[in-house]
Amino acid sequence: MKIAVDDLSGPEIAAFLSAHVQQMQSISPPESKHALDLDALRRPGVTFWSVRDGDTVLGCGAIKRLDAGHAELKSMRTSPARKRNGIGSFLLGHILTEATRMGFTRLSLETGTAEFFLPARKLYEKFGFTSCEPFADYLPDPHSTFMTKTL
Question: In the CATH scheme, what architecture does the domain 2-150 have?
Answer without folding.
Answer: 3-Layer(aba) Sandwich (3.40)
